[in-house]
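Hey, I'm writing a tutorial for new members on how sequence and structure tokens pair up, and I'd like a real worked example in the thread rather than a made-up one. If someone can provide the structure for the chain below, I'll link this post from the tutorial.
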Amino acid sequence: MIRKLLSSLVLAAVFTAAGAEETAQQVVEQAVDRISAQLNGRREELAANKQELYALINRELLPKFDVDYAGRLVLGKAWRDATPAQRQRFVDVFYNFLLRSYATAILKFEQDDIRILPQRAPPQDGRTLVRTEMKMPDGTLVPVNYSMRSTPEGWKAYDVRIEGISYVQNYRNQFNAEVAAKGLDALIERLEKETEDIDSGRREPEQIEPTPGKKEGK
């Protein structure tokens, strides 16, 4: 549950829209302000109306999420072997899968719970890391790092590492095994079915959990 909440807050912080001239650090800083402003006074309304919550996230967060690049990293070798139609179908369903898995936890976002740390090194090869600390309800500080890349539309997020665990690596471990056993189309169909079940009320989002990931440097 803690990882799910942190993932949601991180995604929310990184994906919020920002100007193309802003640094990656500034994108995150402004994201914290924007998502807090969007949620203030509307948490109960959004909790009762999931479609409105999804629409808010699509409008405010999706523009700064590099869904194509993240999908390519998550699929790994399977991406190289996939047809263009399979790639697009996977990207679409993977985003919807993440949206429904983490959207509700975004409602627990509190601006004072995140501290953006000074940048250790300048961007290299169009990529950089923005480091933050998230304060948990018991006062524990959890390191959360955002991997970002420069695009023609500005800095966009493509990975999040919570306590060193990469969400890209986490899902890649899970999906690669499934693709190897059943094929890419079977994975896509499973994700489509699970998102449909959530929308219809036959499944609770909390039942969707990634497999354990691998920590940085190990």
